[in-house]
Amino acid sequence: MGEFDLIARYFTRPCRDAALGVGDDCALLGALPTGMQWAISTDMLVSDRHFWADVEPQALGHKALAVNLSDLAAMGARPRAFTLAMALPEINEPWLAGFAQGIWALADEHGCELIGGDTTRGPLNICITVFGEVPTLQALRRDAAQANDDVWVSGTLGDAAWALSLMQSSQPLPAEARSRLERPTPRIELGLRLRGLAHACMDLSDGLGGDLKHLLQASGVGAAIELSQLPTSPSLQILPAELRRNLALSGGDDYELLFTAAPNKREALQVLAADLGVPLTRIGTITRKPGLVFLDHGTPVPAEFGGYDHFSI
Ligand code: ADP
Ligand code: MG
Question: Which of 4, 80, 208, 260 falls 20 to 30 Å from 168 in CA-CA distance?
Fold first, then answer.
């Protein structure tokens, strides 16, 4: 099987939304309805850096698209289309079938159409670009936090990092923990429903402690975060409190949404949480004074949590 058969067999479907999809030099997208704008994001997954080459191909397909959809969720954008660029060390059909299945299942769940890509031989590397739509000026940006906003986070934190550390130390990995690491859920519906409720929003990929700093910097504000309020899942309750806190603050790969909202939105947000079946937890307050302060039951505690940085070592 060659490159073009591979694309035809695994990554080509009839066009649905796009004016022209896989097969020509470019895809063609129709105009957006008036009052809408494109939200576009790219994320690359590199073997041995973001995943191990022996990960289940279906899970890899899922995650490669999920981390991109998570960026659309963070902007309050609705997924429309994506491109898929991949380097493969060889053509392994069972692997490709699994990988494609993982991608298509998630793409179909969100009505997101594969419109093109690139396929080449090389060390395993997956790069996806997603295209979403959002009403003009309603995107949830990082620079929109306001003093006195509440700081909220969805779901639970630290599960993926806990799963990773179990894997790295060759300990048994409960199915639920593996799924948090390998099959994250992009919070698309939450992102859409946060439009008009939240001010600033971002998704958590490198750990709350580091990611939040980017949002604060972009908005020119500070925050006080109450460590005792960080939401962690029941499976982490067996861990010492300090380790649990560290996982929740510095663990990457959560793909939950971190957002700020005015205090008068608390009730609406709790209703939304119940509606979606996704916990939303208030973990702190935005301050006029720049800087990030951590509190433990109201008392400031020294804590320095950098997010993950590929070039920091
Ligand atoms: P070109 O040489 O013009 O860049 P290619 O030969 O790389 O085009 O690709 C042929 C067609 O297949 C293009 O429409 C491209 O978008 C699509 N394509 C290539 N790889 C993939 C892939 N992994 N998934 C989806 N579409 C792909
Ligand atoms: Mg090409």
Answer: 208
